[in-house]
Amino acid sequence: MRTQVAIIGAGPAGLLLSHLLAQGGVESVVLETRSEEYVAARIRAGILEHSSVELLEAAGLGGRIRTEGDHHRGIYLQWPGERHHLDFVDLAGRSVWVYGQTEVQKDLIAARKADDQEVHYEVSDVSLHDVTSDRPFVTFTDSSGATQRLDCAVIAGCDGSFGPSRHAVPAAQKFEKVYPYSWFGILADVAPSTDELIYAWHPNGFALHSMRSATVSRLYLQVPNGTDPASWSDDRIWDELATRLGHGQNGWKLNPGPITDKSVLPMRSYVQTPMRHGNLYLAGDAAHIVPPTGAKGLNLAIADVALLSKALIASLVDRNQSLADRYSDDAQRRVWRCTHFSWWMTTMLHTSGDPFDAELQLSQLRWVATSRAGATGLAENYAGLPIGY
Ligand code: RFL
Ligand code: PHB
């Protein structure tokens, strides 16, 4: 088999890259270890930044975001006794959309199918070869058990944090921070109890009220690392969410409902640089991971791919290497901004048990929620900087 760009991974980064490349006249083949059904059903992120929505719309992928997504002007920040609304439109002239990653993934799968894109699902033994030569190739075992070789001009490593691509960059510099807590996430068949997301600091730990639609809520609790989701009954989950989210304060009520999914997500920050080695380019979680508190993971993957697709089209169609040569540096600028913002939101909102830390967090929350300067910094980062930042 031969193609111009071998894309490893059919998550949002890989499928969006193949879509944008096709629009620029570059062909690709996508390899994915999981099944199409598994990839389409994974429950992950829920918030799209302003620039992500603009990019998806410009790529012809915005139809369902407008009809089924939910436009949010901002978020609520709260701590015991106080809830403050931050209006991003007013503060930063930008907003966000609630539109689940599962829906983005379904839109991408449908668009690639409509284009007859070659995607090989359920492959195994994916290996990258000769990435610094001008004839790199990928070998893999296809779903029928046959060994295959895919020759290409460029390999795009979009295979997330557990894929092989990041390990094919020798001497990469790696930065990592592991947090001493995890998120316990639930999905529930109940109307959200709030019009916009609530990020809550509480002495028992952080809680977040998010949503997926008018009838589906998504909520999270800070829990110790290693927590077994089965060790929490549904009643205990709703009781703890009610406590941390302030049920009963100023007449606000949290409506419980049937829980349809429970999972525990460990939190870490990870950045690997450079994001290019010869003819191998990394994008999305393959190069960096952020804790979910800033809602940045999916948006950062989209922003990488916006830069990478332009760079590869310039290189493969116009024979102009300048964007490809700058790709890693350009992408890293935004990666570090989002890495800092995600770390900042995480450390401001998650409790450590240390009373000194708690007072600093509350002081910072009061400043962010009540000073226009403080609130604008949060709004600008949360609603997202322009793609070319
Ligand atoms: P993905 O989505 O992980 O896609 C990578 C794809 O590569 C495949 N793969 C391979 N394919 C071929 N060969 C191999 N050897 C391969 N190894 C792996 C995988 O099966 C997968 O299909 O990365 P991508 O495209 O870079 O997209 C990034 C986003 O998915 C990610 O940043 C966010 O979902 C992160 N994230 C969250 N972000 C948020 O902003 N808010 C959240 O609530 C949130 N929840 C989450 C998350 C990530 C999670 N993961 C990765 C554990 C919840 C979870 C559980
Ligand atoms: C979600 O809806 O899953 C979600 C929303 C905001 C976050 C993280 C996750 O910061």
How many whole angstroms does the radius of gyration measure? 21 Å
Main sheet summary: 8 strands, mixed
Estimate what percentage of residues fall within beta strands: 25-35%
Full CATH superfamily name of the largest domain: FAD/NAD(P)-binding domain
Uncertain runs are: none
At CATH's second level, what is the architecture of the largest domain? Answer: 3-Layer(bba) Sandwich
Strand order of the largest sheet: 6-5-14-15-16-13-17-20
Determine the N-to-C terminus distance.
Answer: 37 Å
* Helix proportion: 25-40%
Overall spatial form: globular
Give the mean pLDDT: 97
Class by SSE composition: alpha+beta
Determine the oligomeric state from the structure: single chain
Secondary structure tally: strands: 20
Structural domain tally: 2
Keywords: FAD, Flavoprotein
GO molecular function, one term: FAD binding
Pfam families: FAD_binding_3 (PF01494)
Protein name: 4-hydroxybenzoate 3-monooxygenase
Account of the protein in words:
The protein has about 400 residues and is an alpha+beta fold. The protein has 2 domains: about 5-70 and about 100-175 and about 270-350, 3-Layer(bba) Sandwich (FAD/NAD(P)-binding domain); about 175-265 and about 350-380, D-Amino Acid Oxidase, subunit A, domain 2 (D-Amino Acid Oxidase, Chain A, domain 2, 2-Layer Sandwich). It has 11 helices and 20 strands. The strands form 4 sheets. It has an 8-stranded mixed beta sheet with strand order 6-5-14-15-16-13-17-20. A 6-stranded mixed beta sheet has the order 8-2-1-12-19-18, covered by helices on one side. Helix 1 (about 10-25) packs parallel to helix 6 (about 100-115), helix 8 (about 295-315) packs antiparallel against helix 9 and helix 10 packs across helix 11. The two termini are about 35 Å apart. Bound molecules: 8-demethyl-8-dimethylamino-flavin-adenine-dinucleotide (RFL) and P-hydroxybenzoic acid.
